Write the structure tokens for this entry.
Amino acid sequence: MRTIKVGILAEKELYSAIGWLAKENKIYKETGDGSFSLGDTNLTTKIGNDAGIVWKILDMWGEVDVESISRLAKINENDVFCAVGWLVREGKLDGKTTEHNTNNFLFWLK
């Protein structure tokens, strides 16, 4: 098995893509090793629930950074990015990097 290292931005993009693909029913997480494969998803419950929580936070607070979403939702940042990918696929979310830190993102509802 070949391991691929990803940078900080690429890792965030990867998890967002996983959320997007889960919404489209095109990716599943393997049991055991936790790798991902293309096919009918088994992530709807986890990512869908997290997306609902993230949506509620953004509905209440407006523009929120990833660290704050993670803290308020009590989910790790990778799961936040999966939820973000799901919500972006639904056309419900927009975002940008913060002015002071290009490794942090702000998100808000459209």
